[in-house]
Amino acid sequence: MPRLPLPRTRRARLTALGAVVAVLAAATVLWATRDTAPPAVPTQDALLDMPAAPGSAEQVKIDTTTYLPATVPAPAVLLAHGFGGDKNSVADDARELARKGFVVMTWSARGFGKSTGKIGLNDPDGEVADASRLIDRLVAQRQVTLDANGDPKVAVTGASYGGALSLLLAGTDKRVDAIAPVITYNDLAQGLIPNAATPATTTSGTPAAGAFAADGVFKKSWAGIFFSAGSGAAASGSPSAEAPEAGQETDTGATGAAGTAAGAAAALPAGPPGAGGPRGGPADPCGRFTAAVCRAYTELGTTGQASQASVDLLRRVSPASVTSKITVPTLLVQGESDTLFGLDQSDANARQITAAGGKVRTIWYTGGHDGGKPGPQLRGKIADFLWTALDGGDPGTGFSYDVQGTLRANGTPSVRTVNAAAYPGLTGPATERRLLALNGPAQPVVRPAGANPAAVSGIPGLNGVASSSSRLGALFSNDPPGQAAQFSTAPVDSQVVVSGASTVRLQVAADPAHPQPDAVLFAKLYDVGQDGSRVLPANAIAPFRVSGLPADGTPVDVTVTLPGIVRPIEGGHSLRLVVGTTDQGYAAPAAPAVFRIGLAAGGTGLAVPVVPGKSVGSPAPVGQLVGIAVTLAIGLAAVFFAALRRRRATDVDPALATTPLVIEGLRKQYAGGFVAVQELSFRVEPGQVLGLLGPNGAGKTTTLRMLMGLITPTAGSIRVFGHKITPGAPVLSRIGSFVEGSGFLPHLSGRENLELYWASTGRPAEKAHFAEALEIAGLGNAVERRVRTYSQGMRQRLAIAQAMLGLPELMVLDEPTNGLDPPQIHQMREVLKRYAATGRTVVVSSHLLAEVEQTCTHVVVMHRGSLVAAGEVGELAAAGGEATFRVDDPAVAAAALKALSGVTDVDVDGDLVHANLGELPRADGVAALVRAGVAVEQAGPRRRLEDAFLQLVGDQS
């Protein structure tokens, strides 16, 4: 039997092992992504007749679909859709639950999909009564497991609008055994007209309790989007009319379990030109809404405030109206990225149901109306909760929340889950609150006429996309100058995880010159980094109204409850409270006004909620596990391959530890045999400005690219401070370079480009020395302008500033004066001289002889890839027989020199006469001038680098 040939060398064995690892990684991918299509789920469709609403003769039809598990009878789940969707919106979730063994019924609520009737916002006599009759339908079909008393085992779940339905149904129909509402509300009046102010400190023991004060501020952007969705979502019964509020999970994660209302509005069918209202009927501003709901919205949209009748209507259709009657096991799932229904809504549901005697388990996750629907792991937890509750078990009262970090893998941020034994302030101790002192004087703020321009705190439904990028987040968060007061904490010593709603006591006063009895204000809490960059967590904002302001300017104390967030504040970061007068997402008064905002006297500062618990990493889906496995396999292979270069990468010559650059026997040959650099050797000492001089094609750029580790030499070595250069060598961090082009982003300012570049290096901001680099570059105020407005000279100077960041010990520049006009070249020369004056070393390549002569102390001349000369600029320029004489009679002197044998190229330049003496000693030239009666004031070599360069290059041609 023949033997397989085995690799003989260490390099060959490592290469073979790396290949094996790569093959195994590919096999892992194929195995993990093999076809595993889930089994089909049988369904039953029915269009059910429902009684008319009180006072209406209209017969309502509700479109339903029942999803059957493999075995019936089985426990049932009513799965309600989100606002703007229909039963098709939750089809995938229904199939998933059916595969887990539940009988699942979905339906299109009144006014959505193919169902008729008017949208009553979960009216107890409308949508809630419909859901109760659906339970009757399930029992009549004998597909549902019954309790001992003949009641069905049934749970209700849904997101947003559907989540509120589950709460309302549990509070009115005693047959409901468990509920799992997702990203929903407690009080729709507070959800759409919030007021975060209370006259005194009334902090609850729970972590995210909202103020829930009366007379709030209308959340016009979100409300308008949903009213539009409800006005037109039923225009077609086809699935194409489906809005994504309860739709499918998207790749971007921007569509939540209730999806984005912006997406909902965008998904609505426009209809043909001249089309009327919903379903092709006459145009109607109320759309599919009931008359009562339409009146309430019209009032809010036109006045910005709600009458008592409108508030009563909103509370009647809110879970808060029945939570005192809910005693069944409840799982509250709320999103941490949700500017529609924040964590305070879930907190209120938890407190009220617990007070009624119900057991509540709470989960906060990273999604929400702005951040995405629950993923498969969380959906699995919901299903497990429902199984345990319907099976008579105890699903517990635990609490967990997700902490999203800054580390990203394949575009996905890292997330860890913190588990606590109970929701603080309910069955366990009250929430711990850490007090952080706020600093800042009382400040006047202006509300402009029309409340315009308005501050920007986010874009409804798109805040999750914005928060994925700090720069996008900055675009979606803006406070106009003069409209906001700002107060800051000192940097925290170590990480503080804000887990809920912080509170602060403020003083608000009217301007006596322009008294206003009421102030509508907006509070935000920013996370501010060490470099001054700021992030508005979850784009959350707390609107509040302060009434009864004295006309004489006496301040009124008010406690403001900030939005509930989960945010790790890293050590060295601080918190900044911003209180402004406008926000584009809310209805602010149009009259101009001035207020004075300060910290309350004797206030305790910022009270930040902290919920301790046990942290665990979130389980990754199969796709992520495959990615991790492949990444680990590739990393393992990289480790083995890196071993081939390890000795070279750690090769250090201690004798050269203080020498910036030593090149020995350098050669670079490309495929095809072309030799770009050959046998190049030279040395650069500390404090030198070395010019790498040569015509285009001499090999200068190739040499610098090898110096920077961008390409690998064929032979020879390069050492920087004694370290041998290899790709990625750590010593490269001691070099500042401009070799491959700057690649600046034109829409950012010069300073922002520099900050972005430095951040990409991962080094601390304080090590950048921005001020020093910008001073040397001499850009002045232009550094604050966008780069697209820069001239070529300014771009080059910005590139030099980038190379100077960190004040590297060695700076390497390739043709820095390319494309510059003479004045710009002069400016660039001054930039390089200023940097060299700091005592550091510069290597600059150029084909401009005069620039090397005027800027550099030393020069290396290259031609056709080889070294032809090296030394001090003055010595090289003085080589040859050229001489310069300063005389009193240049014309006579020129004639006398021309008469000498062997003298050529005699030129007159003012009182200077230049001549190439050839082999003739300079003293003989002086003697000839004296004999001709010319007074010689000065005689010496003609120091012109151009002539020496041309002579050297010519010798090599």
UniProtKB/TrEMBL annotation:
Which PROSITE patterns does the entry link to? Answer: ABC_TRANSPORTER_1, ABC_TRANSPORTER_2
Q: Where is the ABC transporter domain?
A: 661-889
Q: Record's InterPro entries?
A: AAA+_ATPase, AB_hydrolase_fold, ABC_transporter-like_ATP-bd, ABC_transporter-like_CS, Galactose-bd-like_sf, P-loop_NTPase, Xaa-Pro-like_dom, Xaa-Pro_dipept_C
> Per its UniProt record, what PANTHER family does this chain match?
ABC TRANSPORTER, ATP-BINDING PROTEIN (PTHR43335:SF4)
Region (Disordered) location: 236-282
| Organism expressing this protein natively | Amycolatopsis tolypomycina
Q: Which residues cross the membrane?
A: 625-644
Signal peptide: which range, if any? 1-32
Q: Which family does it belong to?
A: Belongs to the ABC transporter superfamily.
The entry's protein name is ABC-2 type transport system ATP-binding protein
